[in-house]
């Protein structure tokens, strides 16, 4: 019954009339208006009554997976239907829809990939683009595509919803279309700035949360943090501090929320805390707009978020911490006034807010690597990317750099046109290097192994390291180690799990997330289906591990590093220092290979290579002739020794695996 009191219901008829009369409408839903969970339902009733449901589904895009899943679940419950039937969701590698589905929530990336198979998106009678103000990379590309689709399909309704007042830009982009504002139902929020510059935002946030808790005023707490690592530290510290303090008036339930958290744990933040217990949710910026947690009376905002930004120095994206924009800060504060008056504690000064924060965030399309987007647009027949209808065109250098990366991988030819390899790559919902690895694997005869490796790389957080049991979990993890390759260590984990009957107990015994491994198995199944459609043979390399390493090298040769000193490498192309991470299988392996390739660089205290594999210098010259050449005289004795040691280790491991040895 609660939804009947949301502001959207008071303006329902007026809004529907505007949508009936216009193909494109921009809906500005102020905080607390109910647009995310209710707008699609309101429209589904109208479309059904007008016979629109005969012509297609209502699709609702979300910039984040967590939001697509949680909103679909909430809407299915409110409509009294089973999730996956009339109401469903689709995210990468997970489709919970059926032939009955009329209301489909999905990530914007899913709709983008669907446009590859169905350029006019005829499956849909109406598309709602929710949280458009977040300006995710895929959302911006969809803007350009959907603008053209609506001109070709006069029967398609497009509703763009945004939580901010930045409607003029959207309206102008789509051809001066009308906008409609749904008033919010919010309460007063007191905003308190820090008097001094905060040096440690985690420590300051924990202190602030405990102070709120001790004061005793009712209401739950929402604390923002930039990323998973900070969230886990904050949760652990808060839980320990709250349990020790004799001053606590009531217990404190500390709950994390971030995109990689298993869905059953994510669901806990929406459950009402039992009487006598205060809830403290520690979240990434996902809780700014995408998710709404009822009962929040206090917001703690350190003023930071993690953003993916293209780093020209390393030639790839890096995830770094940046100050939030003023618009983000205001959105966060508003979360304290959803159900009652609240307080927002900003862990930064008023001066920092006014002079160090941008008015609004830079759209993702203007700051990240565009290789995936370029590949997708090329496959959709967009020849001149500089003429594509971007709301905010990306820097020309970014487009050219992305095209260069695709040319290196063989996806584009010298004229910038899509190659047959590129057409195959676009079929896989993977980053271009991983798609290339899949294609090369079929040619080299190791596709069975690479299928598993790519699936393992597509699912985060396979291992876990519980507090107080770090040494035990590290010892178990080392048992899977393949000294010359992190990629092959992941392969080893999967193969041993398979040998043990895909057992959840086995996973728990080895500090491996059973749910993550089940997801890997699902991903593998879907990728195999795509490979079968591409007529790619799934064959095993058997004991030819060098073939697997060479295949990995074929996808990552542009991310190659050369040994400089103990544990220290330099990127072969840029000369930038990069290091083996202590969790790598190659770390402390007795010898260090002259050359390695890596999946990505992670910036923390140093530039650490993540997912590293030892390769031969000759392979780099063979696979990346545009970068490397190896003279015969340069085949160092050390390289030969290292190669022999790898072979010796491999033989020893094979002997250990033989029955009876």
List keywords for this structure.
661 residues; alpha/beta; Rossmann fold; Arc Repressor Mutant, subunit A; 4 domains; eight-stranded mixed sheet; six-stranded parallel sheet; globular
- CATH domain class of the largest domain: Alpha Beta
Gross morphology is: globular
Which assembly state applies to the chains in this document? single chain
Q: Which architecture of the largest domain does the CATH hierarchy give at level 2?
A: 3-Layer(aba) Sandwich
How many distinct beta strands?
A: 21
What is the CATH superfamily label of the largest domain?
A: P-loop containing nucleotide triphosphate hydrolases
Word description of this protein:
- The protein has 661 residues and is of the alpha/beta class.
- It has 4 domains: 181 residues, P-loop containing nucleotide triphosphate hydrolases (Rossmann fold); 176 residues, Rossmann fold; 58 residues, Arc Repressor Mutant, subunit A (Orthogonal Bundle), CATH 1.10.10; 113 residues, no CATH class.
- The chain has 24 helices and 21 strands.
- The strands form 4 sheets. It has an 8-stranded mixed beta sheet with strand order 4-3-5-2-6-7-1-8, with helices on both faces. Strands 9-16-13-10-12-11 form a 6-stranded parallel beta sheet, sandwiched between helices.
- A hairpin with a 2-residue loop joins strand 3 and strand 4.
- Helix 17 packs across helix 19 and helix 17 crosses helix 21.
- The longest helix is centred in the C-terminal third of the chain and has 21 residues.
- The protein is globular and about 75 Å long.
- The termini are far apart.
- The relative contact order is 0.07.
- About 1% of the residues have low confidence.
């Amino acid at each position: 019954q609660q939804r009947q009191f949301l502001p959207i219901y008071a303006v329902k008829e007026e809004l529907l009339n505007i949508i009936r009369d216009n193909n494109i409408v921009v809906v500005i839903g102020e905080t607390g208006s109910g647009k995310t969970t209710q707008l699609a339902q309101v429209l589904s009733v109208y479309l059904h009554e007008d016979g629109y449901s005969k012509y297609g589904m209502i699709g609702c895009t979300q910039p984040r997976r967590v939001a697509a899943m949680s909103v679909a679940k909430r809407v299915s419950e409110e409509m009294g239907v089973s999730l996956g039937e009339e109401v469903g969701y689709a995210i990468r590698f997970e489709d919970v829809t059926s032939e009955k589905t009329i209301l489909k929530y999905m990530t914007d990336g899913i709709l983008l990939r669907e446009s590859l198979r169905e350029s006019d998106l005829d499956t849909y009678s109406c598309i709602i683009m929710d949280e458009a103000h977040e300006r995710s990379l895929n959302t911006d590309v969809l803007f350009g595509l959907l603008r053209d689709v609506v001109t070709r399909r006069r029967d398609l309704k497009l509703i763009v919803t945004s939580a901010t007042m930045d409607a003029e830009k959207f309206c102008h982009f789509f051809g001066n279309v009308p906008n409609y504002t749904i008033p919010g139902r919010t309460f007063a929020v007191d905003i308190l700035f820090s008097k001094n510059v905060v040096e440690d935002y985690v420590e300051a946030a924990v202190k602030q949360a405990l102070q709120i808790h001790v004061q005793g005023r009712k209401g739950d707490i929402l604390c923002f943090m930039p990323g998973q690592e900070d969230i886990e530290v904050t949760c652990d510290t808060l839980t320990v501090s709250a349990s020790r303090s004799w001053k606590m008036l009531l217990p404190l339930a500390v709950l994390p929320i971030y995109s990689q958290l298993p869905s059953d744990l994510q669901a806990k933040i929406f459950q009402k805390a039992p009487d006598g217990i205060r809830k403290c949710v520690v979240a990434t910026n996902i809780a700014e707009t995408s998710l709404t947690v009822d009962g929040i009376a206090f917001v703690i905002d350190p003023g930071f978020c993690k953003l993916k930004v293209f780093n020209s120095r390393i030639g790839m994206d890096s995830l770094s911490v940046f100050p939030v924009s003023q618009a983000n800060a205001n959105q966060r504060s508003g979360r304290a006034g959803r159900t009652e008056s609240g307080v927002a504690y900003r862990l930064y000064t008023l001066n920092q807010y006014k002079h160090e924060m941008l008015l609004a965030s830079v759209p993702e399309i203007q700051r990240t690597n565009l290789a995936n987007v370029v590949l997708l647009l090329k496959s959709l027949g967009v020849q001149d990317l500089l003429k594509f209808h971007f709301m905010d065109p990306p820097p020309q250098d970014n487009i050219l750099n992305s095209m260069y990366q695709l040319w290196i991988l063989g996806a584009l030819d010298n004229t910038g046109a899509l190659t047959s390899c590129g057409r195959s790559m676009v079929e896989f919902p993977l980053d271009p290097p991983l798609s290339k690895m899949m294609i090369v694997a079929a040619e080299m005869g190791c596709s069975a192994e690479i299928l598993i490796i790519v699936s393992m790389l597509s699912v985060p957080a396979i291992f876990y390291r519980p507090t107080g049991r770090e040494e035990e979990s590290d010892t178990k993890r080392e048992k899977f180690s393949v000294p010359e390759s992190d990629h092959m260590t992941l392969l080893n984990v999967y193969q041993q799990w398979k040998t043990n009957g895909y057992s959840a107990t086995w996973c728990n015994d080895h500090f491996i997330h059973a749910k993550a491994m089940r997801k890997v198995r699902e991903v593998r199944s879907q990728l195999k289906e795509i490979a079968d459609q591409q007529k790619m043979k799934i064959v095993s390399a058997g004991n030819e591990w060098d073939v697997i390493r060479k295949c990995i090298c074929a996808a990552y040769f542009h991310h190659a590093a050369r040994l400089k000193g103990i544990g220290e490498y330099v990127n072969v192309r840029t000369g930038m220092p990069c290091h083996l991470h202590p969790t790598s299988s190659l770390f402390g392996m007795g010898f260090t290979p002259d050359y390695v390739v890596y999946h990505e660089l992670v910036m923390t205290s140093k530039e650490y290579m993540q997912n590293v594999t030892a390769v031969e210098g000759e392979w780099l010259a063979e696979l990346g002739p545009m970068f490397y050449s190896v003279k015969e005289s340069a085949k160092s004795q050390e390289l030969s020794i290292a190669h022999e040691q790898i072979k010796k280790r491999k033989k020893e491991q094979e002997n250990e695996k033989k029955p009876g040895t």
